[in-house]
Amino acid sequence: MQSKIIVMQVSRQSVSRMNRRNKIILAVVLVAVVIAVVVTVVVLVTRKSGEDTRIICDKSRNSDLPFCDSSLSFDSRIKDLISRLTVEEKIGLLVNRAAGASVNVELSFYNWWNEALHGVADNTAVIGTFFRPPTEYSTVFPQIISLSTSFDMNLYLQIANSTGNEARAFHNAGNADLTFWSPNINIYRDPRWGRGQETPGEDPFLSAEYARMVIDGLQGDEDKVGYLKVSACCKHFAAHSLETDRYSFDAVVNKQDMADTYLPVFKTCVENKVTSIMTAYSGINGVPATANKYYITDVIRGQWGFDGYIVSDCGAVDNVINDHKYTKTESENCHAVLDAGVDIECGDFFTRSGYLQAAVSDGSVTEAMLDTALYRGFRVLMRLGYFEKDDKRPYKEFQPEDVDSETHRQLALDAARRSIVLLKNDVTESTGAPPLPLHHLDFASNGASVALIGPHVNASTVFLGNYHGIPSFIKVPLNEIQRYWSDVKWEAGCEVDSFENNRLIEAENLARSSSQVILFVGINTEIEGEFGDRHNITFTGLQTDLIRRVLAVALQPVIMVVVSGGAIDLSAYKNDPRVGAIVWAGYIGQSGGEAIADVLFGNYNPSGRLTQTFYDTNFLDQVTLQDMNMRPVNGSPGRTYRFFTGNPVYPFGHGLSYTSFQYTFASEADVQIPQSSSGCTYVVVRVQNIGSLPGDHSVLTFVAPPNAGLEGRPIKNLKDFQKLHNVVASQIRDVQICLNIDMFKLANLDGEFEVVLGEWTLMVGDITKGIVIY
Ligand SMILES: *[C@@H]1O[C@H](CO)[C@@H](O)[C@H](O)[C@H]1NC(C)=O
Ligand SMILES: *[C@@H]1O[C@H](CO)[C@@H](O)[C@H](O)[C@H]1NC(C)=O
Ligand SMILES: *[C@@H]1O[C@H](CO)[C@@H](O)[C@H](O)[C@H]1NC(C)=O
């Protein structure tokens, strides 16, 4: 600005009248003016084209190249981009911390590894935190094992959609990339598994339905918008379900279990256009999952038609050579993994000490193999709009104000309430009513006193589970209960997972002098988590002693609130009349304490139903964690409600309400379905609320085959679930159940599904109906 004014002033003077000295001054000024103008123009031009240097195709070196030309096909753009990369650059782009490129094109660092299991998660191990202004917090929804108990497809979708919107907003703010490695849909095969909490539980059908909603919610409507919102990833392929020895473990899985337990959810992911699949650490029948060409190339891509990118679990490429000892040299290892069909390595085997570079030099890996892997990764980035210029970028509407928004906080609270399971609520003799909900006790008027006892009374971060974000607040039970009753006394009594701070005597004394005790017990993600399977399913530390002492002196039946992801052996309390009620509240997210208080006081009528079998401790002695068999063989009692031959403490699907629901079939007649049929044969179930309170209710429909539980047949299979919201007292709702012939197929010993003829049983709640397949 200043230099232009000088130019105008100078030009008004008459040059002819100037003396020599003036001419020199003028020349100096003119040179200065020219330099200033040039510098200004250069600054303006570069600022314009590099307005947002995070956007690859707004970089001046890239913007005119074909790969940035949105009028061309994705295919030709990707090929153009790959053709401009050096071998070294290609290798650097195939690991999770993708280095970018600078020789012929300018690609920024790209982080393939982002997580959004139940809200955008912190990923400090990889790139430092995402959680910096303007996205300092994310909404932390309930951990999946709890969320799944809602059996509510719409809730699953709303949470995944909100998470995807937050994820895109994190990206738009420059704080995350676009490929998110969620959901975890491995079957929760054994209660000891530390990461079972990340999954929707033990049932393949529910897990597949859940996966569909997550993919839709995270990826958005690509057909309508033209681009993916963020990329989802189904993990860990396949049969992953333990942490102990996971780097070298070989999962021995028979064809029948593979077909009807371990593979179906992944197949559903592919059918629903998931854009990524992650391989497991373990081996599958002798071949490491990360070098398993049969599964990756023949099954996932070949038979199922997967067209996204395959990523290794983090460090799994190292495990192929160092733990599985499947390959002998580094070059051979690179070949085995890429040849199997893995595209992106999470880890740094490819880049460390030039291993992949050497494999290319010695001919073990061709440059074409690098190009194929890059193509699959870049294609997903293209579909995300990552290579569009700023003016063509999709999903720009998601901004920091959409993160941790009031709407999402409300959804997280609502979801936490719906994720709580009421396991027990027996009528108390002295009052003639069950202990819950608590509103019938008028503590103010009768001078009764309430004691909250146990190490989870003041639980906070425990509600976040694992793979969580940073919430802007966490609601703790103590404070939230005090909002209903200000005058509560409390005592931790002991710690969750240590023998320190023994205050059992103090707890016992408090229990003795209180009219109602609520126990807050359970475990945490130090006890069950990644790297940590449990070896027992009992309460840890001094908690069993604590409970024993409290029950011995409590004046009224005690209410137990149990916080955990996996099942805890509750057999000692199920039939003990001194325990009036048991509420299973898992790692239910940022509003955990508030949701628990709402359920205890009847502000929300619980409707969760277990998605995992609650076994007793004997189960662990009968089958090892490493035994992958689902069916009862070799002394195993069988796993999950589909095959377990013992008596569970609380079965899959168990969950009480403060009201009761009665089921009747609209028609009495048996149903006949010819094996040649197509489409739906409908059965209508009338569900009536026969209690006095309104409530939500999940209707679960199972089918049991002829000879159920014999000859490797399942006892029953879940085939349908529907959520009824706010059914008021005496209201009747009709539930239509579509039966189709595929529900009456079972996997045989060769892993092939066949229709099983004969008399099946339809089971809805406590009513059954014959179904004849002929
Ligand atoms: C997902 O969220 C967006 C933004 O709030 C909304 O417009 C869209 O309808 C939601 N999608 C679903 C399936 O709920
Ligand atoms: C509850 O825990 C928080 C930390 O999570 C702590 O700051 C607070 O003092 C605890 N409350 C009580 C009453 O101990
Ligand atoms: C149960 O396992 C936990 C850790 O998972 C351990 O701390 C505890 O000592 C074990 N308890 C028993 C009775 O073995």
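^ 2-acetamido-2-deoxy-beta-D-glucopyranose complex. Residues 696 and 726 are 5 Å apart (CA to CA). The mean pLDDT is 93.
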